[in-house]
What does this fold into?
Amino acid sequence: MKSILRLTVNGREREDLVPQNMLLIDYLRDTVGLKGSKMGCDGGECGACTILVNDAPQLACLTLAATVEGKKIETVESLSQNGRLSKLQQMFHEKLGTQCGFCTPGMIMAAEALLRANSNPSDEEIKKALEGNLCRCTGYVKILESVKGVIESNEEAAA
It folds into this structure.
């Protein structure tokens, strides 16, 4: 059975006819055409599909599209503006936090949610916010440095 799904994706209101059992990750990738969120584990264990639902991180692979009716969805594609990377995306590039890049969209969205809620998190708060996101390429040092780079950049701009 299908139903009409009304929501806002990356600032644009949408209305699509979707199967009631469609996962949000499939809706975003196949219906909307946003390929940034990745299906890594197919079970909510890796965090590669992390998106923001009403500003809170959520796993798109475990979420039925129908459950986000009327909500605001943000994917990694929403962060860049006019072809320019966001500060967080830029730091992942500069500090080499991307590695192979597969986990990067989920890492960035989890970090984005943290930085919106707390512009100056401690190392422990950063680790806690990212603990549901797995990276198979690195020991997470460069990822942590990337998030901390945003904080340092904000401090320098304020000085």
